[in-house]
């Protein structure tokens, strides 16, 4: 039986809920503070935890498919705290040569991540703004694990709603696509109020209590953002239904209808 991860203390803001730590709480992790757990408990009137777990399930399926396609390099943008079944915990057991670089600009998430990954030779965390693709790609810690002359899997999972500018998701995806070798993968999810608007309204109110507001977008908006990629079947669909295999039915069909997902190949 594995020991439960130790809680860490940072100089970050422990007086206000933090999105990365809140996601960790919803996933059953130990890298969160009392203020995060309080907000998580107060939001128990809607399936926030199920929404997060649905996205994590999508991530797990995509990692496995990337490894099956021969990709051994992963760049997880806006990763938050890499806990509770994140990329390196899925990829490395499938192939020990896999390398993972997490990227986040939140010093709290980075501090937690450095503590978790300090003895891990297959994964690291880079403190950077994902909107600056060249800075992320050229960061020494990124380059220490990833060769961009070879295919890379780039993940924008759960983070695009945090980009509040109308065209930012499209700009970010295009910036990374331009820097990747052919055969690379870009996988995305995006919050939407197309199907469950009342549920999304509740989630947005929770996010407003943190320092990270969320912007849901329509299917048309997300289609425009991924237009430069060659999408794998079944294209852009609800993330919970993307090659779901045995993952459905979920305990919360409503939670499964709150994010779109797509996986595209760079040509």
Q: Please identify the structural class as seen in this structure.
A: alpha/beta
CATH class: Alpha Beta
Please trace the helix and strand order, writing H or E for each element: HHHEHEHEHHEHEHHEEE
Number of strands: 8
The CATH superfamily is Vaccinia Virus protein VP39
- Let me know the average pLDDT: 87
Determine the CATH topology: Rossmann fold
Total number of distinct structural domains: 1
- The CATH level-2 architecture is identified as 3-Layer(aba) Sandwich
Strand content: 5-15%
Structural notes for this entry:
The protein is globular, with a radius of gyration of 17 Å. The N and C termini lie far apart (44 Å). It has helices at residues 19-26, 34-42, 48-68, 87-94, 107-117, 133-138, 140-145, 168-177, 197-207, 219-225, and strands at 73-77, 99-104, 123-127, 153-156, 185-191, 230-231, 237-238, 259-265. With 267 residues, it is of the alpha/beta class. It has one domain: Vaccinia Virus protein VP39 (Rossmann fold, 3-Layer(aba) Sandwich). The protein is built from ten helices and eight strands. Strands 1, 2, 3, 4, 5, 6, 7 and 8 form an eight-stranded mixed β-sheet that branches. Helix 3 (48-68) runs parallel beside helix 4. The longest helix is centred in the first third of the chain and has 21 residues, at 48-68. Helices cover 36% and strands 14% of the residues.
């Amino acid at each position: 039986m594995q020991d439960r991860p130790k809680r860490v203390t940072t100089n970050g803001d422990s007086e206000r809920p933090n999105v990365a730590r809140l996601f960790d709480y919803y996933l059953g992790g130990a890298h969160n503070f009392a203020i995060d757990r309080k907000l998580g408990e107060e939001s128990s009137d809607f399936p926030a935890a199920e929404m997060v777990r649905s996205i994590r399930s999508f991530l797990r399926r995509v990692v496995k498919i990337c490894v099956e396609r021969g990709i051994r390099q992963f760049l997880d943008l806006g990763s938050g705290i890499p806990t509770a079944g994140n990329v390196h915990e899925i990829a490395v057991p499938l192939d020990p040569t896999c390398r993972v670089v997490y990227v986040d600009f939140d010093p709290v998430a980075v501090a937690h991540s450095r503590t978790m990954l300090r003895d891990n030779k297959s994964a690291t965390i880079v403190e950077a703004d994902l909107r600056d693709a060249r800075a992320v790609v050229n960061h020494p810690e990124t380059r220490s694990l990833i060769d961009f002359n070879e295919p890379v899997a780039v993940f924008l999972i759960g983070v695009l709603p945090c980009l509040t500018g109308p065209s930012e998701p499209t700009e970010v995806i295009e910036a990374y696509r331009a820097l990747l070798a052919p055969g690379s993968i870009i996988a995305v999810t995006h919050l939407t109020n197309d199907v469950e608007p009342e549920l999304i309204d509740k989630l947005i109110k929770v996010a407003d209590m943190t320092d990270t507001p969320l912007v849901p977008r329509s299917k048309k908006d997300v289609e425009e953002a991924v237009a430069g990629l060659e999408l794998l079947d079944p294209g852009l669909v609800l993330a919970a239904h993307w090659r779901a295999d045995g993952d459905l039915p979920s305990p919360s069909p409503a939670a499964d209808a709150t994010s779109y997902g797509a996986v595209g190949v760079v040509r």
